[in-house]
Amino acid sequence: MAREGSGRPRRRPSVKDVAERAGVSWKTVSNVVNNRTNVRPETRARVEQAIAELGYRTSLVGRQLRSGRTHLLAVALPDLTMPYFAHLAHNIIRAAEARGYTVLISETSGRPEAERYVAGGFDAQFVDGIILRPEGLDSVTVTQAHGPLPLVLLGEPVDGSHLDHVIIDNKSSGREVTQHLHDLGRRSLVFVGAEETRQFGPGWLRMLGFREALEQAGTPVVDVVPAQQFTRESGARAVEDLMERGVRFDGLVCASDLIAVGAMHALRRHGVRVPDDVAVTGWDNLPEGAYSNPTLTTMAPDIETSAERAVELVIRRIEDHDAAPEETVVGHTLVPRESSTGVLAGR
Q: Which domains does the chain have, with CATH numbers?
């Protein structure tokens, strides 16, 4: 804490200090701070200047007592070192700020106990609402753990749930990307990134779409290789496993771009050409895939719309706790590049 020359701690400026500096009443300062319209522009400018000069900060507790809200949202994501979640967090923050809310970020590392804690409301109502992207828990369990605070889930739907959901249709996108490789003549396809022991979440749903597409085409599934994490290392290990077992394949459908990048790296080490010998696809449309060699064919989810809808829904729930739950399915787009087509896309 800053100190005055006497060595005593400097007192935090109050509303009355701002009012005295601006030559107005404390009620006028309150009106300016709370962005009310019944203040003349010249008076507002004088108050704002006094606030800046004094370094005045509003009290979060006082704001909550006056309005019943903090205008804080908590966003809980599995792993902020992952580019996809960093991009998602960035877009949520922008969407929230545009609506007058500040975002606090929590990282769960996909731990079930951490996700239960978030869904339950952090044991303290210091935020108005929560946006959660679960990884360690399925949506049914999260719904059961839900506490008193408004909660929006990013993830799979739950029949009869009282929660709002924003969903990427992972199963449908899995069919589409698999059909893309099948249309290119690939008939020995492997999926990388689904855990048989965790029958929920993006990897599992994308794998179901992969299986459905091949079943509809009358083409057998060559293999499904698990990946506990959507990382480059997981992709490289998957290829090493396939090579050690002598599995013959001409296409890899990877559950994320990072898995795909790691897989392509391992294929190069084994002298396997992409896409001449093996075509590779990913998910998430990360910038890394647009600059990899070869460039990566990917399934691009609409992250911007996911973030916008999540913020809209949680604010709607804050304003009306009894509103009927909504489910929003956001779009996705296949982005063909060299790793499947052999063609470098134009700028």
A: 15-58 (1.10.260.40), 72-169+303-331 (3.40.50.2300), 170-301+334-341 (3.40.50.2300)
